Amino acid sequence: MKILVINCGSSSLKYQLFDMANEEVMVKGLVERIGIDGSRLIQEKGDDEFIIEEDMKDHTDAVGHVFDALVDSENGVIKDLSEIDAVGHRFVHGGEKITKSCLIDKEVRDAIEEYSKFAPLHNPANLMGLEACEKLLEGVPNVAVFDTAFHQTMPEKTFLYGIDYKYYEEDSIRKYGFHGTSHNFITNKTAEILGKDVNELNIISCHLGNGSSITAVKEGKSYDTSMGLTPLEGLIMGTRSGDIDPTAVTYIMKEKNLTADEMENILNKESGVLGVSGVSSDFRDLEAAAKEGNERAQYALDMFVTRAKRYIAGYMAEIGSVDAIVFTGGIGENSIGMRKDIMEGFEQFGIKIDDEKNNVRGGAHEVSTDDSTVKVMVVATNEELMIARDTKSIVEA
């Protein structure tokens, strides 16, 4: 079975084509600047790169070029689009109505549209990718895999907010959580590595990157997570503020005469480590600036580390016995220093990093000392493979 995985952003599209017989990535690519001058597609097949530079006014155009690249006589990997058996789509928000990956029908589409109010930059773009595939691959099944689905096992005491209950009943205001596909993959991969039944596994999954979230996984299921109604809550991130006193928000709005949309833009795109440092949203740039003595860059890094410690320690108390603390994502997998800084202070609980073992990037590694009371691990995430696996399972069923 060959499965195409599509991940649409507001002006971009990432894709991978899998041969599920051996879960091989046949080809992967990125389309950027959709609807903007300078659109281009970059496709990678092994070490070879294929580029199409042509204006793409919308996601239908973009998907069309993806299909052209897949069947290109010199650079493609299939002879005909009929070789694609199914398409798996990443959707950000399924709310409470979609609790697992599923075939896309009218009910699913209606839920995606309904919860676009909580993911206005993502769900509509995801839908455009779906509509393009339906138009250009008529009759091929489409499967939706939701970032929020993995977190639907959270109990009320962790997903409710401390506001009038009517806002939950009437407006669905609650914590939903995100990065669920990644946390799900990490949970299953960690269970496999440790040789443990996933239903008996307790871990703290730390997906750290430009967007970051930490999830408490109890008995293989999401029990609590740092992101909330939207991906804005939780850790300080590249450009997102993370946790903040709501009164600070209303105060700034009144003082600066800002609209709700303007304030939301500030919190999502002008805050985080970018706002604190004034340097960059890229943690590598911050580390370089901090080494040169930039105090604000150091503040931003310290804030990220401090909040990560706070969530990890809090979740350890919530779920009790913990088998492993797992780092993944761009920062979690690749920043040796960040992992060490985050775990500093956990020695009082008997959890210790081994500096030599921690000198790794990506892959799957145990980086704690032999006598550590809890394993600390680095496990590379693979959201696209998780989407492909779910798609295969659902289509076959």
TrEMBL record:
Q: What is its EC number?
A: 2.7.2.1
Keywords from UniProt, A to Z, are: ATP-binding, Cytoplasm, Kinase, Magnesium, Metal-binding, Nucleotide-binding, Transferase
Q: Which of this chain's residues are annotated to bind substrate? A: 90
Q: Subunit arrangement? A: Homodimer.
Site for Transition state stabilizer, residues:
179, 240
Q: Does the keyword Disulfide bond apply?
A: no
Q: Which GO terms describe its molecular function?
A: acetate kinase activity; ATP binding; magnesium ion binding
Q: What is the lineage of its organism?
A: Bacteria, Bacillati, Bacillota, Tissierellia, Tissierellales
Write out the catalysed reaction: acetate + ATP = acetyl phosphate + ADP
What NCBIfam families does this protein map onto?
Answer: ackA
Q: Where in the cell is it found?
A: Cytoplasm
Q: Might you name a Gene Ontology BP term for this protein?
A: acetate metabolic process
Role: Catalyzes the formation of acetyl phosphate from acetate and ATP. Can also catalyze the reverse reaction.
Cofactor names from the entry are: Mg(2+); Mn(2+)
Which GO cellular component does the record give, naming just one?
Answer: cytoplasm
Q: Which domain of life is it from?
A: Bacteria
The answer on whether this UniProt entry bears the keyword Transferase reads yes
Which annotated residues bind ATP? 14, 207-211, 282-284, 330-334
Pathway listed for it is: Metabolic intermediate biosynthesis; acetyl-CoA biosynthesis; acetyl-CoA from acetate: step 1/2
Concerning its family, UniProt says: Belongs to the acetokinase family.
Cross-referenced InterPro entries: Ac/propionate_kinase, Aliphatic_acid_kin_short-chain, Aliphatic_acid_kinase_CS, ATPase_NBD
Cofactor info, note text: Mg(2+). Can also accept Mn(2+).
Binding site residues for Mg(2+): 7, 383
Active-site residue list: 147
Q: What is this protein called?
A: Acetate kinase
